[in-house]
Amino acid sequence: MPAIAIMKQFNNFQQYSICFFFPYHEVSGVPVLFSRMANTIIDQYPFIDVSIIDYNNGAIARNFTSNDKVRIIEFKDGQRVSPPDDCVLIMQSILPYAMRPELLIKPKTKILLWTLHPENLVPILIPLPGLRNIQNHYFQFYKTIASLFFRKRIKLCKEYIRIANIRKGLYFMDGPNFEKTIKYLFLDRFDVDFLPVPSVPSLFKEEKTINTDVIYFCWVGRLCDFKSHILIHTLKKLSTIAAKTQKRIYYYVIGEGPFRERISMLNIDNHYFKLDMKGPMTPDALDRFLATEVNVLTAMGTSALEGAKLAIPTILLDISYYPIKGDYLFRWLHDTKDYDLGHDISSKDYVENNSSLETMFLSLFEQYEELSRKAFEYFKNNHDIGVTARRLVSAIEHTNFAIENVPPYLLKRTFLRKLYDKMRGFN
Question: What string of DSSP letters covers 146-169?
């Protein structure tokens, strides 16, 4: 959409200033997301000044070293740094006492919190190595500790979230992040604003068709523990379905990780099913391969969007740290709710004796064009980076949340928190 047309959509057409904060050296999800959003806003919203607070040569900053449209504010460990006056500070959601101590936010600086991980707003009650993860695996333990020793802190965290939400300063990337937040803070449900993670549209415009002699499936993603158990379950199911229906399936696995050997050693090949371990690919090579060689994608997270943006019917898989034991209910990406791109598998994800995957597989032969269209429309309407950018700019307009609204007690780090930060190298 042309910049002038975009500008007319916003109420006052006034100059805005935003600042992304995420000082980090390594390439990971948040720096990639913030870099993409900054680039899109620069290109499409010339009335917005963009600043970034990051390390010199940090994961975000190094994407803009030769771009004079972005102001880089250098972050240094142990030295105070402030966002520009009158900007909206955009951060991954965080509890106030866990913010980097170097970050000095003026009382009236507006803040936009973007919840990009299920634990962003969950207090770490025992912030010590080896103990901090216990609460994620044993909710009853967490609930007991919280009710006995941390009632005041939980109460203030709830108040922080309530204020941020009322003042339009809190957004969630999807339903699962919201659900974990309300569960671990013992919150009643409330109306929530979503800001889904985006993906960049593909340059490939292949017309999607299917050769019914062989259906080419593909997995895209790292082969690590929480992704690989559901992948192994899917492979075994498809191998059985291929033999049962006597319809050939060729399954590519694109990715690398500690489970690679275990997956490659699965004894699942038969006359109708073939597994092909392709290894990792560059983004351009992946786009080209998916567009020309793949009929169906199975994936989770933003990897699922790599198929949908190419109009490839995409089966969304969920997270499990343990082998799948039960009749997991498969679903299409375009049928997901609240922008969910994969959640922790629970009892709600099992339906005894269901034939969901076989039904989905057989529908490819009769409804492929419709499934292709639905996949692309889901991406275009919900996760196209232009859509997310419009939502972000609207959020910038409406946030009225500032650090002066935060309960003062929550700005203070406890002794355990200071010790934890010291061990992480923070001052």
Answer: HHHH-HHHHHHHHHHHHHHHHTT-
